[in-house]
Design goal:
Elements lengths: L1 H4 L5 H8 L3 H11 L3 H20 L4 H27 L5 H10 L4 H15 L4 H5 L6 E2 L7 E8 L18 H5 L3 E4 L2 E2 L5 H9 L9 H4 L3 H7 L3 E7 L18 E5 L2 H12 L4 E7 L32 H25 L4 E8 L5 E2 L2 E2 L9 H4 L3 E5 L1 H6 L1 H9 L5 E2 L3 H8 L2 E2 L22 E3 L6 E3 L2
Parallel strand pairs: 2-7, 2-8, 4-12, 5-6, 5-7
Antiparallel strand pairs: 1-13, 3-11, 8-11, 9-10, 14-15
Helix pairs in contact: 2-7, 13-14
Bound molecules: zinc ion (ZN).
């Protein structure tokens, strides 16, 4: 883990292994075999030193001196590093978890305990099955409506030409009209299975258990008499049988073999329903950055087409190709909706970002969040018909586009854009980016140990 991802094993890493699929596992093996060349000599050296050490006469005083000296030096080093990194703003709890419990040998116990704790939250799924949001619409709208929530994967804010990147990676989003970019949006975690539930339910980093105890957006729209649909890539969370509770009350769930198939399924259902709500879950820019068709192999050399070329850019170029492809797929969805002349919006956001390096991605990194891992683009497109019907909401949407928000805002915004009200006990109206004013709030992320929550500014 240290060689590959720069971190010690965490609860989120173990969870990711338990929930992995063939696409992810194949990519991992293909890209990680080189680490054996480091590990095997280290193992031989360690065994050799232990063997020679056992042959030496035992000196208790010297051994105790070495043990105490190493302990004091390591505590001093960690405290100094911690002081430099956090400038005294860190809490004792985060220090203790981040620097002691998340490191060997304590991490094996601590991370297994966290994993078991998170797995036991599944007992709340039954409780959630019995709740409802009391979702209603005050306005009777005669026209057809389509609301799409498109969730991407591992796309960091900095690599889109839409956000000012030096390469043209989003040629379609750059030129499509009626598009609003939110510049200061943060994900609620940087591992998929902690971040996606925070997008589609009321759960936040501090209240992650709500994703089990309550239903999500598919239920809200179902109650409000929409045809509620999920179309998920079979390799990602919403396409996973283990996570089906996140799609509760969906009228239809489609599992797509590829991201391209998500768009073809969407095309086929988009004309069939007068009132349609659709969650799309892409494989997107997920490591190891090979999710694109040959015509999007623009940035070269890259790890997929030129694995034997010596270059520091192999992963950076492949990653940018995946963004090109995601941009193309989003344009397909928007163009399809646009042909139907309906009251419509498309909200796009990735589950989290990614810190790309010369040797691959680091989004599952250590428990100190990097900005690239949680600062992601939030993009909202709307049809002219939507603007005509809800011109005040569109004005509000532009008004808030520079305000600091995070995934806590998404659930309420998606309800509000479709003019859906829910019971007051579930409502936080001023968390909607379509409302007159947004209530400022602190932003947090769940780090990969699955229990620690860190404020991000
Ligand atoms: Zn993810």
């Amino acid at each position: 883990m240290v060689l590959l991802f720069g971190n010690f094993i965490s609860s989120g890493n173990i969870e990711a292994v338990l929930m992995t699929n063939t696409t992810e596992a194949t990519g991992f093996i293909r890209n990680s075999l080189y680490t054996l060349w480091y590990i095997i000599p280290m193992l031989i050296l360690t065994i050799g030193i232990c063997y020679l050490h056992n042959k030496q006469p035992y000196n208790l005083k010297f051994t105790l001196f070495c043990a105490v000296a190493s302990l004091l030096i390591s505590i001093g080093f960690v405290a100094y590093k911690q002081y430099i990194h956090y400038n005294n703003e860190n809490t004792l709890l985060i220090f203790f978890r981040g620097r002691i419990l998340n490191r060997p040998p304590y991490n094996m116990f601590f991370q297994t305990r966290n994993l078991i704790h998170n797995r036991t939250l599944r007992k709340y799924i039954k409780e959630g099955d019995n709740m409802n949001f009391g979702a209603t619409r005050t306005d009777t709208i005669e026209q057809n409506e389509i609301y799409v929530l498109a969730i991407g994967e591992s796309m960091t804010y900095d690599n889109l030409s839409l956000t000012g990147y030096h390469r043209i990676t989003t040629p379609n989003l750059d030129t499509i009209s009626n598009l609003v970019l939110y510049e200061d949006y943060y994900a609620g975690a940087y591992l998929t299975h902690y971040s996606v539930p925070q997008i589609i339910t009321r759960a936040t980093a501090h209240t992650y258990d709500i994703s089990y105890k309550e239903k999500g957006l598919t239920s809200v729209f179902h109650e409000a008499e929409f045809h509620s649909v999920v179309i998920a890539n079979r390799d990602n969370t919403l396409g996973d049988k283990y996570c089906r509770y996140l799609n509760r009350d969906a009228d239809e769930i489609f599992i797509a073999k590829s991201d391209k198939e998500i768009t073809t399924i969407f095309d086929s259902i988009s004309t069939k329903h007068k009132k349609l709500f659709c969650i799309l879950h892409f494989w997107g820019c997920h490591g190891f950055y090979n999710n694109y068709e040959p015509e999007f192999d623009i940035f070269r050399p890259n790890i997929n087409s030129d694995p034997n070329v010596k270059s520091d850019s192999l992963y950076y170029n492949a990653y940018d190709n995946t963004i090109l492809y995601q941009d193309y797929l989003l344009s397909c969805i928007i163009n399809q909706i646009n042909t139907l002349n309906t009251i419509s919006t498309l909200v796009f956001l990735p589950d989290h970002g990614e810190s790309v390096t010369e040797t691959g991605g680091l989004h599952a990194g250590n428990c100190i969040p990097e900005r690239k891992e949680y600062h992601v683009p939030l993009v909202i497109w709307y049809s002219n018909e939507y603007k005509n019907k809800f011109h005040q909401k569109i004005e509000n949407l532009y008004k808030h586009s520079k305000e600091p928000i995070n995934s806590d805002n998404i659930f309420y915004s998606v309800c509000d854009e479709a003019e859906i009200q829910i019971k007051s006990e579930y409502q936080l109206a001023n968390y909607s980016i379509f409302s007159d004013s947004i209530q400022p709030h602190k932003r947090y992320v769940i780090v990969p140990d699955g229990v620690s929550v860190v404020e991000v500014k």
